[in-house]
From TrEMBL:
Its main location: membrane. Residues 12-148 form the Guanylate cyclase domain. It is found in: Membrane. GO terms for biological process: intracellular signal transduction; receptor guanylyl cyclase signaling pathway. CDD domains: CHD (cd07302). This is Guanylate cyclase domain-containing protein. Belongs to the adenylyl cyclase class-4/guanylyl cyclase family. GO terms for cellular component: plasma membrane. GO terms for molecular function: adenylate cyclase activity; guanylate cyclase activity; nucleotide binding; peptide receptor activity.
Length: 201
């Protein structure tokens, strides 16, 4: 299976907000957020896999262009895109900025998100016969989700597997967390990227 970084961002305070506002306001917020994210996909060359509630799940290095110029899923014989981690990271940074352009309906404050990145093998396919959809499976997906849930608001939290694929000039901007306990995995070495004041706008 191809190795690729996956990204799972989620808005901070989303669950408590859902208890305070009408469902249509929740849908409006997510639509505004997701529409902004969708507009960035082609620019950064990443693939939107799915949305699950407040989680927007994308992957890099998943798609390739076949001999007919059509988009196809990478397989075992596909060459790994050497820039896929950088593309996903650039998209993640753009997401942080895009999210802050949307306000929470409860307090009027800009939306903050946590972003989790992890790189590893996945298996893809369409499952089911009713409303079939393209899905990714594997521990990589779960670990990316763990990176998000153990991250910091307004920041990007990455596993060592993704961090190692970034250029040294980019690595210098990250801080090691000293390791975090991840359910089902134990202690994992991870890294945190926090935007500067200029990068937040």
């Amino acid at each position: 299976p191809p190795k690729l970084p996956t990204i799972t961002p989620a808005p901070i305070g989303f669950t408590p907000m859902c208890k305070e506002v009408e469902p249509c306001q929740t849908m409006t917020l997510l639509n505004e957020l997701y529409s902004r994210y969708d507009a960035l996909l082609d620019e950064y060359g990443v693939y939107k896999v799915e949305t699950i509630g407040d989680c927007y799940f994308v992957a890099g290095g998943l798609m390739r262009e076949d001999e007919d110029g059509m988009t196809a899923v990478c397989d075992r014989s596909s060459k790994e895109d050497p820039l896929h981690a950088e593309r996903v990271l650039a998209f993640a940074k753009a997401m942080l900025v895009a999210a802050r352009q949307v306000v929470m309906p409860t307090n009027g404050q800009p939306v903050e998100i946590r972003v989790g990145l992890h790189t590893g093998p996945v298996v893809s396919g369409v499952v089911g016969t009713r409303m079939p959809r393209f899905c990714l499976f594997g521990d990589t997906v779960n670990t990316a989700s763990r990176m998000e849930s153990t991250g910091v608001p307004g920041a990007i939290h990455a596993s060592a597997a993704t961090f190692r694929r970034l250029p040294r000039t980019e690595q210098a901007k990250w801080k090691p967390t000293g390791g975090i306990q991840v359910k089902g995995k134990g202690l994992m070495q991870t890294y945190l990227w926090m935007p500067s004041a200029a990068e937040s706008n």
